[in-house]
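> forwarded from #structure-qc
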């Protein structure tokens, strides 16, 4: 449970976003007034994490806001451990590990309630010649959104992030090898509003702090596994959603830490229900009319039919971008609310694609990604599959009714090795993202597999230490 020191860290409303909303103008004024002294300048890495550096606010304002700053290019060519990984064309010992250029996107300035005198800003990434770096997750998504814009469309998306909260601090969890962790609830509290374990203040902090950082939350819901909760972000344009999602994960860990807790976005940490990231997706025309709505049997437009058909057709070869880690595939278990069959259905949670709403609210929910997903890559994959479905004029199969787990349907890849092979061979991925991007993210998966294949697991020790 939170100790006395952590429990006393109840922040004032001003620290939870009570000041004027942060714009470039208010940022400048607060820097001059001494209210902001640090800027955390961040890029989104391949794993979807925010990485970067802290700059003096006055220096950032005078020299970096419009001119950018440099950082080592390996930020887009490393693994979770931040080790130097060979095999990437943009960064290696053979290239000398040069620099990339971080250009701040001033529209993403955000307050950080856990560090009241600091703000965060997301950056787009360029090479030394000023060209956008195609392997940058944010740039990769921008390119797909540009393809939609060329047709007069805007992607509107929302995400639902599941995570599990523990009474252990991050340090305690690390020091015990992540064994015997104590969830904040000892039982399934799905949809429960009962707070007998004292988690309410942490959830309240999460609401306030994210709101103060311009992250719009629709709801926070208790989920099925012990200690599991879900944050639902309001639907916004796709880039804003991805930015909000990445920041919310970054913030949630630090907000939990201020109260002596820890939380995880691992896809699967134990034998209970895994942590999903459901992505709701729709398209709007330039006049904000719904592109997916039409007058066929299901209220679909031809665009909706082909876009949805593209999701089904190309899901296997794009799964790597939706399930990027070895642990991601542990979620795909029959009867677990995680999809195993490549199917779509009306309000059917056993399907990979769940169609909801009508008219302007018509959308599909992509249920494949886990909470460990990089939102930029996942949304880019959804757009790429949908556009290919339209280009090829794909016809939509009949919806699945009943239990998709028991139907004779094609299955999603059930391990990273198969997903990597399909991604490498994918003509759709190469056409949508470029051969350089395919090679880059294939190398990421290949390295993860190499590291895992060399690791000795607890399962092996318990099975073989004495008895073999």
């Amino acid at each position: 449970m939170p100790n006395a020191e952590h429990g006393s860290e109840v922040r004032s409303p001003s620290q939870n976003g009570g000041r004027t909303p942060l714009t470039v103008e208010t940022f400048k004024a607060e820097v001059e007034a001494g209210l902001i002294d640090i800027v955390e300048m961040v890029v989104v890495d391949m794993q979807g994490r925010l990485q970067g550096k802290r700059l003096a606010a006055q220096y950032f304002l005078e020299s970096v806001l419009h001119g950018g700053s440099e950082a080592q290019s390996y930020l887009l060519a490393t693994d979770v451990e931040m080790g130097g990984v060979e095999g990437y064309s943009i960064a290696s010992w053979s290239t000398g590990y040069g620099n990339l250029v971080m250009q701040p996107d001033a529209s993403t300035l955000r307050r950080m309630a856990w560090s009241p005198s600091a703000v965060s800003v997301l950056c787009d990434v360029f090479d030394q010649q000023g060209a956008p770096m195609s392997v940058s997750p944010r740039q990769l998504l921008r390119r797909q959104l540009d393809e939609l814009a060329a047709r007069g469309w805007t992607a509107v998306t929302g995400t639902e992030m599941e995570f599990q909260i523990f009474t252990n601090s991050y340090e305690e969890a690390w020091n015990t090898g992540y064994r015997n962790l104590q969830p904040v609830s000892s039982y399934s509290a799905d949809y429960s509003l009962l707070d007998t374990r004292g988690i309410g203040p942490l959830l309240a902090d999460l609401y306030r702090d994210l709101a103060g950082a311009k992250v719009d939350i629709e709801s926070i819901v208790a989920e099925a596994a012990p200690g599991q909760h879900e944050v639902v972000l309001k639907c916004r344009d796709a880039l804003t959603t991805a930015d909000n999602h990445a920041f919310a994960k970054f913030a949630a860990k630090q907000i939990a830490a201020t109260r002596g807790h820890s939380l995880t976005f691992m896809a699967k940490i134990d034998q209970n229900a895994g942590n999903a990231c459901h992505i709701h997706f729709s398209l709007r025309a330039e006049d904000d009319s719904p592109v997916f709505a039409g007058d066929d049997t299901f209220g679909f437009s031809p665009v909706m039919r082909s876009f949805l058909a593209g999701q089904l057709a190309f899901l296997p070869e794009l799964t790597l971008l939706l399930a990027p880690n070895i642990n991601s595939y542990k979620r795909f278990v029959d009867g677990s609310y995680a999809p195993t069959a490549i199917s779509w259905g009306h309000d059917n949670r056993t399907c990979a694609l769940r169609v909801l709403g009508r008219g302007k609210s018509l959308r599909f929910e992509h249920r494949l990604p886990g909470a460990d997903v990089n939102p930029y890559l996942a949304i880019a994959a959804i757009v790429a599959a949908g556009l290919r479905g339209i280009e090829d004029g794909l016809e939509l199969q009949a919806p699945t009714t009943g239990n998709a787990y028991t139907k004779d349907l094609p299955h999603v890849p059930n391990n990273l090795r198969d997903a990597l092979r399909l991604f490498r061979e994918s003509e759709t991925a190469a056409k949508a993202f470029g051969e350089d991007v395919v090679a880059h993210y294939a190398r990421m998966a290949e390295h993860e597999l190499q590291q895992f294949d060399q690791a000795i697991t607890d399962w092996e020790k318990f099975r073989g230490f004495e008895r073999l």
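QC bot note: Residues 1-17 have pLDDT under 50 and may be disordered. The domain at 13-126 is CATH 3.10.20.70 (Ubiquitin-like (UB roll)).
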